[in-house]
Amino acid sequence: MTTIDIIIPSFRSPWLTFMTVASFEKFRKPYNFRYIVVENSDDNSYRDLIEGNFPDVTWVQNPTSKRNSTANAVALTVGMSYVVSEYVFMCHNDVIACHESWMQYLMSKIEDGNSLVGISYDTHPDRIKAVHQSGLIVKSEIARDVSLYPVQDDSGKTIRDVGDNLTKYCR
């Protein structure tokens, strides 16, 4: 059985995070999921809710003053230090699996020779047309080799958002 580590950044969002993990659990077969929930604040009030309902959760308390995309990149980078599986799925804590074969579909694309597969493709003309970090799966060795942080040009405009470097690297 293939094990997939799933990193879920959270920021004081007990029920969003709970529903994300619950939906993945509902449709986990034939995979073994290991969850890495990275709470980007000092709020641990819902830790027992998450760990008590889902035994395969590693809770990471990671207070940070960063916000938005940078905070997300911080959580993913910290989460990567807990990844032990060949594959890692990174997603926002508002992603809900709605079909029993959601992960089989994503993994079938990896098995077809792709390095990176996502659930959303950003087609905005000012962006690099990246697989969006709202949900993507990649080999863990690639995720370890690539910065997940946003990139800005000299004027301070974001030209690659969190995780976009994975798309650039895999192309």
What is the element layout, followed by pairings?
Layout: E1 3-10, H1 14-26, E2 32-39, H2 47-53, E3 57-61, H3 68-80, E4 87-91, H4 102-111, E5 116-118, E6 135-139, H5 140-145, E7 151-152, E8 158-160, H6 164-170
Parallel strand pairs: 1-2, 1-4, 2-3
Antiparallel strand pairs: 4-6, 5-6, 7-8
What do these coordinates show?
The chain has 171 residues and is an alpha/beta fold. It is 33% helix and 23% strand. The protein is built from 6 helices and 8 strands; from the N terminus they run E-H-E-H-E-H-E-H-E-E-H-E-E-H. Strand 2 (32-39), helix 2 (47-53) and strand 3 (57-61) form a beta-alpha-beta unit. The longest helix has 13 residues, at 14-26. The protein is globular, with a radius of gyration of 15 Å. The model has no long low-confidence stretch (mean pLDDT 93).
Q: Roughly what percent helix?
A: 25-40%
Give the helix tally: 6
Which ranges are low-confidence, i.e. pLDDT below 50, for 5 or more consecutive residues? none
How is the biggest beta sheet arranged?
6 strands, mixed
Instruction: List SSEs in N-to-C order.
Output: EHEHEHEHEEHEEH
Strand content: 15-25%
- Determine the mean pLDDT: 93
State the shape: globular
Strand order of the largest sheet: 3-2-1-4-6-5
Based on secondary structure, the structural category is alpha/beta
**Total count of strands:** 8
So what's the oligomer here? single chain
Span between termini = 29 Å
Radius of gyration: 15 Å
